[in-house]
Specification:
238 residues; mainly alpha; 3 helical TM bundles of succinate and fumarate reductases; two-stranded antiparallel ribbon; elongated
Length: 238
């Protein structure tokens, strides 16, 4: 016997799992900020995570389950909605404007899924070696550093982060609406807060590859010492 789950329950499950995933994004952001403090700080953070052992694996397994539930119910709801409306109905401009964020959520979600898979392959399941300022170094910082010195890699990362931020901002609004926690009066404030959170996440995450590329550019510049400058001045005077 097939159990049919009501659409409202599916929406609530999607909202709840989305909220939990948002918490992970926030925690991940706090960890990634350590990149700004150099290799020792970031590698120390990575080692502390790995030292959790079975607890870390349990957390990762839980995260995967939450992610799969979120994706599964989202796909199910999209299919259900399309079956319910096989023929597109005419929309007023106001309805179209309101629903554009909702309608592109499956696409940003698909982009995020591809990004997560590639992100894990690139950083978690790859060797933790990389070239930093022309020297081969060991550690997760070196792996991240080398990856972000590639402009194409950094560009794609920033695009994916923008998708994550947009998805997250709309997810916050959807969660409050789905559980009836949003009113006509509070909704405008909720929209502003969610957009602010999304923009902040995009700016902080997006600044990571830019920071690395600028740092690498500075490291590549030839350094002129005071001694070399003095020799050049003396040579010109003679």
């Amino acid at each position: 016997m097939k159990i049919k789950i009501p659409s409202i329950i599916k929406k609530q499950i999607i909202a709840l799992t989305g909220f939990l995933l948002s918490g992970f994004v926030a925690a991940h952001l706090l960890g990634n900020i350590m990149i700004f403090f150099g290799p020792d700080a970031y590698n120390s953070y990575a080692k502390k995570l790995m030292s959790l052992g079975p607890i870390l694996y349990l957390m990762e397994a839980g995260l995967i389950v939450i992610f799969l539930i979120h994706m599964g119910f989202t796909i199910s709801l999209v299919i259900e909605n399309r079956k319910a409306r096989p023929i597109a109905y005419k929309k007023t401009p106001s309805t179209k404007k309101r629903s554009i964020a909702t309608r592109i959520m499956p696409y940003t979600g698909t982009l995020i899924f591809a990004f997560v898979v590639l992100h894990l392959l690139d950083f978690k399941y790859n060797n933790h070696y990389g070239v930093v300022a022309g020297k081969l170094q060991e550690g997760l910082y070196a792996r991240v550093y080398e990856s972000f010195t590639d402009p194409l890699h950094s560009f794609l990362y920033i695009i994916a982060i923008c998708a994550v931020s947009f998805h997250l901002a709309h997810a916050i609004q959807s969660m409050f609406q789905t559980f009836g926690l949003s009113s006509t009066k509070s909704h405008p404030y909720l929209v502003r807060i969610s957009i602010t959170i999304g923009v902040l996440i995009a700016l902080i995450f997006g600044s990571l590859p830019i920071f690395i590329m600028v740092k690498e550019k500075i490291a590549q510049k030839p350094r002129v010492s005071f001694y070399d400058t003095s020799k050049e001045v003396m040579h010109n005077e003679t």
